[in-house]
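**Protein record**
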Amino acid sequence: MAAPSGAASCEDFAEFQELLRVMRTIDDRIVHELNTTIPTASFVGKVDAGQTCKELYESLMDAHTTRERIIKNCIAQTSSVVKTLREEREKAQDDVALLKQLRKEQTKLKLMQSELNVEEVVNDRSWKVFNERCRIHYKPPKSQ
């Protein structure tokens, strides 16, 4: 269930969204993952639930950190493009193509910023499920 760690392309928003969708697979499947790996009372001796929860915790932390880094990197890149286009727009106020490009980049920037909110919701949901199922088997470090 490792997430792809390929470099994100910030140019094409659809590609950016697809990368995030694929990377959120671990969060989408967390309930199934916990149901299939954390033993019920009758199988408790056959599986090391503590180790399983620890591995899942590390996978979630890695996935969340990677996605946040990618989103923030793309926001920074797109913000830089918007800033440059705004400066060019100041010099050539009657350039319609430039205005169109600026609006397009501003829209993309807003969409990317909204992905941070989506990320927060996805992460909160995953941690809630993780804590419900793993709290008796594994105690994560206090940094979370």
Summary: The first helix runs from residue 13 to 23.
